[in-house]
Amino acid sequence: MMNDERLEIPSLLNLIDDIQRLGLSDQFGNDIKSSLNKLTCNIDVSKLDLRVTALLFRLLRQNGIWISQDEFERFKDEDGNFMELLGNDVEGMLNLYEASHFALEGEGLLDEAKTFAMKHLHDQIRTNEKGSSTNHVMETLELPLQYRSPWVEARRFMDTYLKDENNPSAKDTQAVLELTKLNFNMVQSMHRNELQEMSKWWKGTELASKLNFSRDRLTEAVFFSVSMAHKPELSECRKALTKAAQFLTLIDDIYDIYGQLDELEAFTSAVERWDINAIDELPEYMQLAFLALYNTVNELGYEILKEKGRNCIPFLRKSWENLCKAFLVEAKWYYKGHTPTYEEYLNNGWVSSSGPLLLTHAYLLASPSITTEGLDCLFNNHDLLRLPSIIFRLANDLATSEAELERGETTNAISSYAKEAGVSLEDAREHMKKLIDESWKGLNRIRALNSNETTAFSDDFVEIAINLARTVQCIYQRGDGFGSPDLIEKQEIDSQKVERLKSQVKKMMNDERLEMPALLNLIDDIQRLGLSDQFGNDIKTSLNKLACNIDISKLDLRATALLFRLLRQNDIWISQGKADEFERFKDKDGNFTESLRNDVEGMLNLYEASHFALEGEYLLDEAKTFAMKHLHDLIRTNEKGFMANHVMETLELPLQYRSPWVEARRFMDTYLQGKNNPSAKDTQAVLELAKLNFNMVQSMHRNELQEMSKWWKGTGLASKLTFSRDRLPEAVFFTISVAHKPESCKCRKALTKVVKFIALIDDIYDVYGHLDELEAFTSAIERWDINTIDGLPEYMKLAFLALYNTVNELGYEILKEKGRNCIPFLRKSWENMCKAFLVEARWYYKGHTPTYEEYLNNGWVSSSGPLLLTHSYLLASPSITTEGLDCLFNNHDLLRLPSIIFRLANDLATSEAELERRETSNAILSYAKEAGVSLEDAREHMKKLIDESWKGLNRIRASNSNETTAFSDEFVEIALNFARTIQCTYLRGDGFGSPDLIKKQVLSLVLEPVQ
């Protein structure tokens, strides 16, 4: 058929194209070259139309026969642009687009051709109905032939070969298709046998079972090696590449997921030294990985030496060393929180892509002979290694989702370039695509040179290198098809790593050699980093042992205060009075010894400990005053630095007033900065565990935000009642701060809904509703009758019915889960809040200024604290008891005290200007007026009331730990966290009502993973 002289040029070109796309290039290589050379000698290319010219151009360059880009000049108009009328020839546009991808550097005419063809092909998609032609256009635009792995394309093309009615050679080339199927099946049989052999090899290593944190990607590894080097004669090369790909995945997971920095440094050193004795310095799991790699590479080196007479182990080893060093660089960036420059990232990234390693192995195995010139090219990172590896790195990065990029979950060429160039992520993506195109031009140049002169590389190796780039483009075309484990698998890997790190931390805690101050600091670190749940029993055991076995009277102030706080914080009673723990630090006049002020750490610990006081513990009040005075002196007399900042942060908000989960996120960023942190060098495992734990829990929180966003949008309240604040992220932040634990998921989601309705109803009473409407709404809530909505204005009907349905659904869930009908308690909490809102509305409309007592008695209810805590009790308690419900009904201190803190902290957030304008009722104003004191003195009084409320909460917590009460530990902790979250929210103004003040915390707590 190919030699049939009656065959017209277009038919011959289509036949050659079919043969090559169907994977038969090897069988007809010489015939194809002969036919193409004959064509170039015997025809006048200038007389061919665009469709044929472009196809001929591509086939010539594809087969190493030179043809100039100038052949396309004649398709331009007098203005130097491609003639618009050509855009109507879809086949011509497809051929031109395909041809443009064989451009070399500097061939601007082919760039113009690509742009022109791409525009008209996109127009074709927009203006035509879907069909085989449109699908063909979309497939071509998505991945042109030059970017496709030939063997993968052969399998795909077989399925579509006879479907295209416009294929001019389809009817006459049944023999071609039949030969293709036979050839493919024969080669595939060999590939299948190799898969079985590799499966047996991998199973024999036992790495999958011994190191089960790593992804098992053998099938994908075989696909990768087949796509790179599918020819039958390259069997040994494929098997070696499969083994290399398996070890790449394993080692990537060690560096990226499982290993700690000191372990990674040791592993990199072992690979660099390539010394069997180095394994003694590695942890057990790394010993297995290193020895398996060591033996496999050495065996491969032996086979190459046996077959080709060259000792190539130094080159193989060097490729693994380079890869591990590049992985280590990225690990150090992660551990140090370093964001590399774009150049820094890319210079390391093309090596860490693993491209150079794979191509080094491919050269040594696929080349007919190994030359000194070839080895020099490998050593000096020839473009044939560098360019496919750049494509590898950039294609991988382009597979990163927009959501991952916006969250900044990982270092990436796109985000690095966007940041440096000051462009959008979309523009950065386009820049990466252009870099890939430029890299392809370089590969086209190498291929053209290799076809026309003697070079260091064989044709087989050049084709393998180009196929690496093609395989990568195929794999990452629609996401990371090879590297990323799915969500469940990643969670499993993370869980395994968590267990290993927990074991290490427990070992540290139980180390008999650890001195008491170091142990206390370690326990403090663990708790501040959000790991209390993982080590609760271990911490209590260690603290109880300390309390029993040490003579506290011999400890200095620093250790005494820290021990005191940790014991009370963990519900182990230690009396500041009976045991006189702090009395010994006083002088003969009964004052704290002034010399103690020089111990800044001691002052900080004393100040923190004082916030765990109960009512009547005056010694701790004295301790607080003493410590506070000297810490303020320190700030005034010292330059700013880490310690000065630490002091200011502590004075602003002591640990007892901080939400544990918010503090965990903050503390991770500063954990290793303190030069005096005695445990910093030895507790990398603690920090790594904290990051893993935080990110795993945060992932759940992020999903909840998405779910709540969908719910809120579904209610239609934001669009229907536009007067109300839309503060969903802040609501999610609030509930996470109150109840962050994974098992509190249902509680969080319910509380988020509650907070959203509180904000809406608050705006109705405070901003939008008239007094008569508010009275009607309050009455409707009190009666809790669906028939009452007819008496409400339209906007209130929507609000009432949405609330009514949500609360009743919540009541149903509680009844289903816990066997109690709690709707009366839920309804009553909404009634109480709305009545309190109505009282304040009446004050406003009547111009009434309430007394201080009148204001506070109503204000702690209108704070919404009792409502939120009622819902929390019903949702978070393991069981709902009659005693517990009675406590709710009678406003137990565990509801009242956090709500008083809520009201007073909110009022303290009111600015001086607002207070002086007397725009609203406020505890500060009421107290200042009645007591005849300044606004500043009134503020100080409110702060003292907050401190007294905290003493009451400390008392409840102490009682709950030592006797059976109406409330579970979970609910007590939520109530305390409620008060803490309020202090955090209103620390520098109304953080909920003014969202900018809390935006950063929302981002760090919910959206941005810890790096």
Automatic annotation (TrEMBL):
Its cofactor is Mg(2+). InterPro entries: Isoprenoid_synthase_dom_sf (IPR008949), Terpene_cyclase-like_1_C (IPR034741), Terpene_cyclase_plant_C1 (IPR044814), Terpene_synth_N (IPR001906), Terpene_synth_N_sf (IPR036965), Terpene_synthase-like (IPR050148), Terpene_synthase_metal-bd (IPR005630), Terpenoid_cyclase/PrenylTrfase (IPR008930). The keyword Magnesium applies. Keywords: Magnesium, Metal-binding. Gene3D superfamilies: Farnesyl Diphosphate Synthase, Terpene synthase, N-terminal domain. It comes from the Eukaryota. GO terms for biological process: diterpenoid biosynthetic process. GO terms for molecular function: magnesium ion binding; terpene synthase activity. Residues 8-137, 492-648 form the Terpene synthase N-terminal domain. Residues 204-441, 714-951 form the Terpene synthase metal-binding domain. This is Uncharacterized protein. It comes from Carnegiea gigantea. The lineage of its organism: Eukaryota, Viridiplantae, Streptophyta, Embryophyta, Tracheophyta.
